[in-house]
């Protein structure tokens, strides 16, 4: 794990900002794959006209943004907390969009393909949002020198 050290001359305290652990790297890769799944899922379950473009655009954005964070971590750079926070918000949108955009499916009788797509988006959105929020949280915290987190 790479680290960068910051010194606060006023207090004489130094802390270390973590530079992406292996766990963050692999979780970012996993979130990127979830984004790819979201983008491709309308074609697997049969495209629902209302969800097709939403899933393509938002899933593609999650794929690219989480992939960018994975790339940063493989090059020993710090986690981009802003990017992963945006991915968490996009994951929440995928979850919420089932009712905001796909409301026609919720009100009428669901076809098997539409039900699968809805559940896929609900689960994928929640997992992507949760993991991305965790990565943003752990990547943005500062760890005081000499703590167990540095070992």
TrEMBL record:
Keyword entries, A-Z: Membrane, Transmembrane, Transmembrane helix
Protein's name according to its UniProt entry: SPW repeat-containing protein
Organism: Natrinema hispanicum
Composition bias, Polar residues: 1-18
Residues that span the membrane, as ranges: 26-45, 51-71, 83-101, 116-137
Region of interest (Disordered), ranges: 1-22
Annotated SPW repeat-containing integral membrane domain residues: 26-132
InterPro entries, per the entry: SPW
Annotated signal peptide: none
Native organism taxonomy: Archaea, Methanobacteriati, Methanobacteriota, Stenosarchaea group, Halobacteria
